[in-house]
Amino acid sequence: MKQKTDKVSKPDEYWRSVLTGEQYYVCRQQGTEVPFSGKLLYNQQKGIYSCTCCQAQLFASINKYDASCGWPAFDAPVNSEAIRYIEDLSHGMVRTEIRCATCDSHLGHVFSDGPDTTGKRFCVNSVSLIFNKS
Description:
Helix content: 10-25%
Order of helices and strands: HHEEEEEEEEE
Largest sheet: 6 strands, antiparallel
Shape: globular
Number of helices: 2
Structural class: alpha+beta
Strand content: 25-35%
Radius of gyration: 14 Å
């Protein structure tokens, strides 16, 4: 699943006008949705999870698993160019934030406690994703 897209750069006023309050808070202000509240947490349909802001493909359903962490979890993105990684030192922790590589939307964090397939747990806010059934 290779996807090459141009970078998307829009002013803050644009994002405020097209996103809901929760989407803006999570995607543009690096917020977090309440655990176990996301509409995609229990989704088991086959398809692709894309960025809420720019619709870039980020994760495939074959990589989704139940991590019991309160947010959708994936063991890998659709390709190595889909995600941008940033050191996150907020809240007195050392974590790795994940963002959409196309539009810089905050998605969540990646941890090294995932399944044996990759050892990674991409913990993603549902509100950061759009699901497209295949």
